[in-house]
Structures are given as structure tokens and as C-alpha cells.
Design goal:
- This protein is an alpha/beta fold.
- It has a single domain, classed as Amidase signature (AS) enzymes, CATH 3.90.1300.10.
- It has an 11-stranded mixed beta sheet, sandwiched between helices.
- Helix 4 links the parallel strand 2 and strand 3.
- The chain is globular.
Length: 486
């Protein structure tokens, strides 16, 4: 059931907000011991949220746009009075005294908070395996990862534990887990959605976006969370269009560009390539024109990212020193030793690795050679996209080179793990909106994701094309049997 259908049932009183909330809480109770999508379930708060919606309806009050919609929130978004840990020992007991802009907008729109979801520590990872509180599991196959870093949010939606969820995307952390878990994941244009209250990883790349089971639901969530925010200096002060209305615009005549570099990857699984090309053929059948395009520096995105993102992480995470807030080691004799021990004990291995990479790249004598050079390449990547969009309306590629891999598959090879985001990173480097949606299944019954990318602030077109493909392909109507998937 999508948000629009739920709204009709709520208005007709076929189903109450409390009943829908209790249904999702029961799913969490039954499935989350296996999936481990949630770090904290706010059952009492959820029921109170739902009861307020039911009481307002009974009193004849107008229903807000997300009335009674049960949501899960990635645990790097601040929620007032509710722990926000970033899946790190460093913030294990941090309870924010304020609400992030995006979650505040959700509660004002009538949404129900089910709880906070698991992630790779400080959003640094592609599998949720770096969480200090244990990994989440893929509902399609619990022996496989759900992707990352927003793996908990994707798994919660895929398992039917939440109607929708929020995640954050720095290099693919919404789209890649959406692909692995067979749900819709949207990364908006950089600045389209406020980052105020999002615990920073890489400030020039981070963006908040929704997970859902349909493109229409993603559009409804974006409608609520998008828009200017004076508390975030990077948030764009431009009007928010009607994303839901855009879904019905025809796609016939639009030009869809197939990014040549994405289909020439050595690690691209043949079944993934075949499913994505079949999706392109479906768009062609809907009246779109397929065009081969080249983004010559597309493959440079991953090397560029792993200079810029760790550099910004090094600066952002410098505040966690054991003095101001966060974890503090008690086994130290001096301030310097306390700081060193606090950071060593509070941060996991992957976070420490990225801090060290970033600190090195920003150090005297190396900044020009690494960070400055990476920013120059970033500009060239953006120019490649600009040239591509001169001839096409939307770009198409696989979301990830493979389907979900098994736990531990890349445990001893960080570079192999980083390559899981090879196809998603360039959109972050250019600040472009992108979406992942299911386009098929591999021979093991695991979902495959299709990625669509449009120009800056062209979310209406992105959602329009994705919605028409989704409605025509009906991928989930033919999904294989899976034990935990709703």
C-alpha cells in the first residue's frame, strides 16, 4: 500500500493510523531480530503520533500530507530527545537537544516515527558492516548485505517494517542499498534538501533523501522535505515544484542517454547489464529515444571521491576529541593521551582509515597535489555531465555493478568495497539528482537496480521518467519468492 492509497483508507476510516502503526511495529517485532534494520524502536512515540492523527480526523481537522505514514529515520539525522549515534561508539549516548530540519518537516506533515535505523559508522561504508552495533541484513537473503551506508533504512522498507524511510547519500548511500534491497531510493540535487541536523560526513557531498516502495511515494516525501532553510547556508532558496503532478507528464519524445563508460566496466555483472538494457528498451517502447553518450571522466569519480570525502571527513570529525562531547577514554594520564585514546577507542577501523587518508591529503605539501587536484577533476566530471545533458534529457546506467554480496566478501579488501559505489559517486561529485529503482532480478533472485540521473533541480523529470518505467515494467509483480520481503 502506497501513501496515496493509505490516505484514502484513513479518510474513509477503513483503517486508523493506530492500526497501521501497530501493523508496522508488529513487523519490526517479528522480523527485526533477523534484519536488524533498527537501532532503536520508538514504539511509545509512534503510537502517540498515530493517536494524534486519529484524534484530529475525528475532530474534523484537515489531514496533513503525510498523516499517519510510519517512517524510519537513518541514525545520523538528529531527533530531539532520541539517541542519534551514527552507529558509532563515539556517539553511543548522544541525545540531541534539537530536531533536524527534514525530520521536523516530516512530523509537521503528520508522519509517525517508528525509530532510528542502522548504518555504516558515520555513513562510511557500502554494506552496513562497519556499524559499531552489528550489521543489518538483506531481507531478500539474510546472508547478504543490504548495502550502505543507509542499509538499515533500505532493509526496513524492503522488509515491510516501515512504509518509507530517510537516508543520506554521500557517494551512493541511498541508491546502492536501494538497488541491493529492491526499493526506490532518491538522492536529490545538492542543496535541494536541508542538511541542518544531519551529522556531517563530507559537507560538499552529503544529501538527505527518501526510500520507498514506489516512485510516487518518493515524490510525496520529497515534496515535504525539500525547500529553503535559513539554518543551512548550502540549501537552495528556490521554489519547490509539484513533484506528484510531474509524474503524469508523458515521456514520449524524451531522449535517454546510455552512459557508455558504465556499460564497459570490468566488474559489471552480465545479469545486471542485461536487466538495465531491458529497462532501456522498455523506455524506448514508451516513446523515449535511446542515445549513446560518453562521460569520459566518469570512471575518475571514485578516485576523486576518495580524496575529497575523506578530507572533508577528517575536518568534520576533528571535533570528536573526547573533550567537548562524545566518547571519552578514562584510561589516560594527559590531555594529549586522552584525546588519542578517545579517538582510537571511539572510532572504528574504517572511520580511522578515512580520517588518516583525509588528514594526509590536507597536510602541508600535499594539499595541492591531492585535494586541490581532486577538486579540479571534480569540475571536469561536472562539465562532462553538462555536455551530455545538451543532447539528452536523462541519463541511464546500472546503480551498482553487482547485486548484493555476501557478508565478509570484501572484509580484507577495502578497495573492492569502495568499487561498490563506482556508478553512483559521479552524480554526487556533480551535485545532480539521481534515483535507483528495481529493474529485475538475477538468477539468485536478488534485485537489480536501474539508475537515472538528470540535471540540477530537474527532479520533476527524473521522477516522471522513473514513474512511467515503474508503471510499465511492474517489476515487483514478478518478484521471486523471498522469506522476509513484504
Amino acid at each position: 500500500m502506497g501513501i496515496a492509497e493509505w490516505r484514502q483508507q484513513l479518510q474513509s476510516k477503513e483503517l486508523s493510523a493506530r492500526e497501521l502503526t501497530d501493523h508496522h511495529l508488529a513487523r519490526i517485532t517479528a522480523l527485526d531480530p533477523t534484519v536488524h534494520a533498527f537501532l532503536e524502536v520508538t514504539a511509545e512515540r509512534a503510537r502517540a503520533d498515530a493517536d494524534r492523527i486519529d484524534a484530529g480526523l475525528a475532530a474534523g481537522e484537515p489531514l496533513p500530507p503525510l498523516a499517519g505514514v510510519p517512517l524510519a529515520i537513518k541514525d545520523n539525522l538528529c531527533t530531539k530527545g532520541i539517541r542519534t549515534t551514527c552507529s558509532s561508539r563515539m556517539l553511543e549516548n548522544f541525545v540531541p537537544p534539537y530536531e533536524s530540519t527534514v525530520t521536523e518537516r516530516l512530523w509537521q506533515a503528520g508522519a509517525v516515527l517508528l525509530g532510528k535505523t542502522n548504518l555504516d559508522e558515520f555513513a562510511m561504508g557500502s554494506s552496513t558492516e562497519t556499524s559499531a552495533f552489528g550489521p543489518s541484513r538483506n531481507p531478500w537473503d539474510p546472508e547478504r548485505v543490504p548495502g550502505g551506508s543507509s542499509g538499515g533504512s533500505a532493509a526496513a522498507v524492503a522488509a515491510g517494517e516501515a512504509m518509507a524511510a530517510l537516508g543520506s547519500d554521500t557517494g551512493g548511500s541511498i541508491r546502492q542499498p536501494a538497488s541491493f534491497c529492491g526499493v526506490v531510493g532518491l538522492k536529490p540535487t545538492y542543496g535541494r534538501v536541508s542538511r541542518w541536523g544531519l551529522v556531517a560526513f563530507a559537507s560538499s557531498l552529503d544529501q538527505v533523501g527518501p526510500f520507498s516502495t514506489s516512485v510516487a511515494d518518493a515524490a510525496a516525501l520529497l515534496q515535504v522535505i525539500a525547500g529553503a532553510d535559513p539554518r543551512d547556508g548550502t540549501c537552495l532558496d528556490v521554489p519547490v515544484p509539484d513533484y506528484t503532478a510531474a509524474l503524469q507528464q508523458p515521456v514520449a519524445g524524451l531522449r535517454v542517454g546510455l552512459i557508455k563508460e558504465c556499460f564497459e566496466q570490468d566488474g559489471l555483472a552480465p545479469e545486471v547489464a542485461a536487466a538495465v538494457m531491458a529497462a532501456a528498451d522498455q523506455l524506448q517502447a514508451l516513446g523515449c529515444e535511446l542515445v549513446d553518450v560518453s562521460c569520459p571522466r566518469f570512471n575518475d569519480g571514485i578516485a576523486t571521491y576518495y580524496v575529497i570525502a575523506p578530507s572533508e571527513a577528517s575536518a568534520n570529525l576533528a571535533r570528536y576529541d573526547g573533550v567537548k562531547y562524545g566518547y571519552r577514554s578514562e584510561q589516560a594520564g594527559s590531555l594529549a593521551e586522552m584525546t588519542a585514546r578517545s579517538r582510537t577507542e571511539g572510532f572504528g577501523e574504517e572511520v580511522q582509515r578515512r580520517i588518516l587518508i583525509g588528514t594526509y591529503a590536507l597536510s602541508a605539501g600535499y594539499m595541492d597535489a591531492y585535494y586541490k587536484k581532486a577538486q579540479q577533476v571534480r569540475t571536469l566530471i561536472r562539465r562532462d555531465f553538462d555536455r551530455a545533458f545538451e543532447g539528452v534529457d536523462v541519463l541511464l546506467s546500472p546503480t551498482a555493478p553487482t547485486t548484493a554480496f555476501r557478508f565478509g566478501a570484501h572484509a580484507d579488501d577495502p578497495l573492492a568495497m569502495y568499487l561498490a559505489d563506482l556508478l553512483t559517486i559521479p552524480a554526487n561529485m556533480a551535485g545532480l539528482p539521481a534515483i535507483s529503482l528495481p529493474c529485475g532480478f538475477d538468477s539468485a533472485g536478488l534485485p537489480i537496480g536501474l539508475q537515472l540521473i538528470t540535471g540540477v533541480l530537474e527532479e520533476p523529470r527524473l521522477l516522471q521518467v522513473a514513474h512511467h518505467y515503474e508503471q510499465a515494467a511492474r517489476v515487483m509483480d514478478s518478484r521471486p519468492e523471498a522469506a522476509l520481503v513484504a
